[in-house]
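Lab notes, practical 5.
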Amino acid sequence: MVPILKEFNLKCVRLEQKAFGFLLDSSLHKASLMESTKKVMSVLNEVGGSCQTSGIWSLIEMFCVSGSFDIAEFVIGTAGRKVKHYNVLIREFCRRRDCERAWKLLKGMKQNGCAPNITSYNMVISCLCTNGKFAEATQLLEAIEKDYGLPDASTCDIFINFLCKRGHFDLALEFLDRMTGRGIEPCIASNAAIIKAYFRSKKYEEAHKFVVDSVTKQRYSSNANYSLLAALHLKKGNVLQASKILHEMMDKGLKPNFRVCMSVSKHLEKSNTKAMQSELMSRYRSIIEK
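Output from the prediction step:
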């Protein structure tokens, strides 16, 4: 296999899970599986290059998916305990909604001299939130702040989505203000989650106020926020309100999303309000030509 894999390296071929499927033979006892895995890793280490990098990753991933977590951890330890490899195992625990094992592994990484990165924390935080364990997720947030100083926008997005799904708008907005106040730009998806949550709760005025406020607080997301607001009104059949929203954003020098604008235009035309449709398109053309 060594000369074959070296040839693969020359062609930058990456190994996938199927390359190691033979290791999952049900006739192999654990001791035999461990020994066979050692031999495979010995070959990968001798070959090096893309085959080694992709091969070790695929081995870990394969053992995780098959539920052989102890073998996956053995591969991680043998490969030098890299955070990117641990993250494969954490991701699988989180996919299975096994928060306890994910969090335990996170703590174990530090003990093994491999500090988790922000991705490691975010995956476990997301798992905890999905399982309704907000207090534990908050504890991890404090750990991020201790280890890294600040969480990232993805961390913010996880918490905001969790809070919005449960209708805790005040907490979501408080969290958003806390992040922006510390210089973190929330994802556009975070703003979208808040706007959609307001709509689900029929809090249309609050949704509009949030979008208006974003022009001064988060100018970079204003176009997306306004366009989403118009799209949601259109989806509810409020064509005139959607049109009004688009005019309002253009009054502020913001360019509407093309698809949203075209959809509103078509609905205005079907509603026998061609004058309004013509005005909307005229303003849209003028703003995109600037």
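Observations recorded by the TA: The longest helix spans residues 30-47. Residues 129 and 162 are 6 Å apart (CA to CA).
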